[in-house]
Every structure is written in structure tokens, then in C-alpha cells.
Amino acid sequence: MPLTIRIDPADNVVVALQPIQAGAAVEVPGVGCITAAEDIPQGHKMSVRALKAGENVVKYGFPIGRMTADAGPGAWLHTHNVKTNLSGEVTYAYTPDLHPPAPVPAETFMGYRRRDGRAAIRNELWILPTVGCVNDVAKALVRENQDLVAGSVEGLYAFPHPYGCSQTGADHAQTRRLLAALARHPNAGGVLVLSLGCENLTREQFLEELGPFDPDRVKFLTCQQVGDELAAGRSLLRQLAAYAGQFARAPIPAGELVVGMKCGGSDGLSGITANPAIGRFSDMLCARGGSTVLTEVPEMFGGEGFLLDRCVNETVFRKAVDMINGFKEYFLSHGEAVYENPSPGNKQGGITTLEDKSCGCVQKGGTAPIADVIGYGEAVKAKGLNLLSGPGNDLVSATALTAAGAHLILFSTGRGTPFGAPAPTLKISTNSALAAKKANWIDFNAGVIADGAKTIDETAQDLYDLVLQVAGGRQTRAEAGNFREIAIFKDGVTL
User: Fold this and answer.
1) Are residues 291 and 148 in the same domain?
2) First-to-last C-alpha distance (Å) of the chain
């Protein structure tokens, strides 16, 4: 097993693939033998030459910060001696560099074909509260109607949240848009929209946001208008179950899949193992005519160099720039520094600056051209790689990916997390120790790359095969644990 990896020939650091003890001799290709001047934890960076205070630290071929003190070869580089270069908004120029993947015939998966022609990978009943006041009613309806989960109906789930009332302006619009987008999601064979009756998010507003819909698939219940909301809810759920039960799995080309890509609880191996494997997967699916979606805009700060020149045209480029700088302005308008990231867990795992985190994060986007940039609550329309406007928060961004139409979500993690979005959420570990320790959370181990057991391409092929299995009905660990929830992006006033 190799001790370190130098990701790019321009890098002046290597990353420890396993703990390195002070005094250990490390052979670095293109550099020679380096002696570790101190202990280097797994996932952390070691200098390959002397660096001066103020000099850029280069990883992934990009500056990820600058030295705050001199350091010799073999030094541990982290938060004690490296500082971010980020500040506020940046002016970008479009210099396209496009490398479309060669088309590949698409395999098939066993999915559901909806009446409107869309593909689905699950056939579930969803209850969507329009306001937090009816959350417990939604939970009771799920608890008391599990007998309706039969035949091809695979589950009955509610997605409580605290919003839908006492909101104004953009927050109210975002809640409305997000819930309507979930109601349109193809994995829901039937949807019950559950209202109280006096909330800001009225039934009329919801219908306007939802647009044309199949009344056999989407039903509405306003609790204040009926004597027994549980009995009325069961009646509607029985109708929805009868409708959803008509669907059966059949072969569907993989090119119809929409896959979201997300990371959380990242470590120093995220950008070396799991995220590059997801990136190769993204290229593979795009080559087959499918769609992938990359979000977490604040975790693109400092990693834009991997993305912007891949926009298919200047219109998409301008949308991407506006999205990135818009999020920076969002931070600054709240008096927050744009680099207020990474988290304590990220730092413990070896991530030093936001640029360090971002350059690893965007590896999930692979190399395919960026076909489109979509807003929060908007649906994917373009084939290929899409960027989605959303924050880095795991639950909020995974919910936004689901609302964008992602059939499933690939979620890489170096620290581990149990949560699941409404769409099946497949957890990919960056290191083998996590996969062994949290087998009840982790679906796929990309740590085999750091172990030297498999290449990135081999791991990506294994991941692609697993995605087709999950699309065909294999449960993720989060699904098996019944872990699924939503979180809605909120910014403004609560009345």
C-alpha cells in the first residue's frame, strides 16, 4: 500500500494515505525520497520541498491557501501554518475547454414508467405537509396505514418540516416551490398534500405552483375542513395506493436516470478516492445520455477552476458565475466570511481551507461539459452534468437534489452519516476504516483506491453497477433503516 499520493505533478504537497510517523522515508514520484519531519495523520498534507511564509500551497494543481510560516520538506501542513486565499466576489472570464465523453450504449435497469413517460426507480406513497402544524397528522397517517404497502407499492412516507406559515417573501416562495417539486417527483407513485387550512401556503398557491397534475396521482386534504382527518386521510391514501399499485417494474435505459452528487463529513481522502470515483461515474452516465447534478455552491468557492471553463456556452457560464458570486454575496450580506468553512470534522480529517475542501468536492463533477445551471426547486431538463444552486448543508442540499428530480443521490463521506433524503441516498466511504466500522451506514467503499486494491476506473465501474442495482430496487442502508427526511432552505424573517 502506498504511503502518500501526489495528486498533480504541480503539487508541492502529498497526502498521507495512511498515518506516517516522524522520521519515515517517503518516496515521492518526480521528487525523490522525503523524510517526514513530524507525524502526518491519514488524509493530511506533507510538504515535498521547503516553503516560505506567503507562498501558495498547491494541491490538485491549484492553490489551496498560503503558508503563514516557513516550513521545510516533510512538514505537516494544516491549519496551524496554512491560511485561505479567499475573500469576496471574483471576476471570471469564459475560456471554454470542453471534452464531451464519447457516447456509449446504455444498459437497462428495472424501473417504473409513469403515465407522463418519465422513469422512476421507486413506487412509493408520499405525504407532504404544507405547514408544520400538521406534521403529527402526517406521521399518524403513515403509522396507521402501513397495510397499504403491498404489491408494487414499496412504502408510505411523510416528510415533515417546520415551515409553510409565518414566512414572507423569498422564504415563502422557496417553501412553496420545494414542496411542489417534491410532489412532482417520479419516485412517488401517489402523493397526499396535507394542509391545515389557515396557513400562509394556501391550497390555491400550491396548485398554482404545482401546475398541471394527474388527479389520480395527487390528492389534497385540508384538515380543518373534515371532521376526522385520519379517516379522511386513509380514504385518500387507499385511492392513491390503488393507483400506484398498477405500476410494475420493466426495463428502462440507464440514460433516463438523473443522479444527484453530494458529499458530507468529508476528510482528506474525499478528493482522492470517493469523489473522483463519483466523477468517473458521472462521466459514464453522461456518456450514456443520463443526467447528473452537482450542488453545494459554497463548496465550489476556490474550486471554480475545475468547472467554469467546462460550461457548454457563455449563457451557461454566466449562469454559473451568477450562482457562485450570488452565494458569496449571500454570505457577505449576513456579515459572514465566504471562507467560514470547513467544519471541525473536516479539519480533523485533513482538510485545511475552503479551497482544499472545494477542490476535492468538485471532483464529483468529473470532466463532462456543464450542460445547464438550475435554481433551487427547479427541475433538471438538460442531459449531461448540471449545476444546482443550493447550500452545502447536507439535509438542505440533498432535499434540493431530490426536488430537482434526482432518482437517487450518491453521497460520499469520510466521517460517516446515517441520514437519507426522500430519494434513495447511497453512502460512499472515502476510507476502508469507516466502511468497516459503520457497515450499517455505508453502501460502497471507495477506500479501496487508497488501499491500492483498485483503481479509480475500476471503482467507478463497481459504483455504476451498484447504481443500476439500486435503481432496480435494491435498498440503500438509509432506506433499510427508514432514514429519510427533508430540510428547506430558509434565509429570512419568521413572523
Assistant:
1) no
2) 58
Inter-CA distances, 73 with 13, 48, 87, 424, Å: 9, 5, 29, 45
Half-sphere exposure of 448 (CA within 13 A, CB side): 15
Dihedral sign for Cα atoms in the order 38, 39, 41, 46? positive
Does 419 fall in a domain?
yes
DSSP letter string over 153-166? --EEEE---S-SSS
pLDDT of residue 29: 87
Three-state secondary structure call for residue 63: strand
pLDDT band at 2 (very low <50, low <70, confident <90, very high): confident
- The alpha carbons of the chain give a radius of gyration, in whole angstroms, of 23
If asked whether residues 438 and 333 sit together in one domain, one would say yes
Are 270 and 352 spatial neighbours (Cβ–Cβ below 8 Å)? no
Does 487 reside within a domain?
no
Query: For 415, which DSSP code?
Result: S
Average pLDDT, the chain: 95
Same domain (yes/no): 135, 238: yes
Residue 88, C-alpha cell as written in the block: 469576496
Domain residues for the domain of 157 are: 124-246
User: What DSSP character marks residue 20?
Assistant: B
d(CA 236, CA 146): 14
Residue that terminates a domain, selected from 56, 83, 110: 83
Q: How confident is the model at residue 34 (pLDDT cuts 50, 70, 90)?
A: very high
Instruction: Pick the more confident residue, 2 or 363.
Output: 363
The SS3 of residue 378 is coil
Question: Is the model's pLDDT at 248 over the cut of 70?
Answer: yes
Which range (29-43, 148-162, 215-229) has the least confidence? 29-43
What lies within 8 Å, CB to CB, of 17 at 6+ separation is: 1, 2, 3, 4, 5, 42, 269, 272, 450
Dihedral sign computed on CA atoms, order 73, 76, 82, 86: positive
Within a domain: 224? yes
Q: How do strand 82-83 and strand 62-67 relate by DSSP bridges?
A: antiparallel
pLDDT greater than 90 at residue 336: no
List CB contacts of 24: < 8 A, sequence separation 6 or more: 3, 35, 36
What span, in angstroms and rounded, lies between the C-alpha atoms of 385 and 306?
A: 13
Nearest by Cα to 141 from 221, 213, 199, 216: 221
Look at residues 246, 275, 303 and tell me which one is the last residue of a structural domain: 246
What percent of the chain has pLDDT above 90?
A: 88
What's the confidence (pLDDT) of residue 304? 87
**Measuring CA to CA, which residue among 383, 393, 463, 453 is closest to residue 421?**
393
Report whether 426 contacts 408 (CB < 8 A).
yes
Looking at the 3D structure of the chain, how many domains does it have? 3
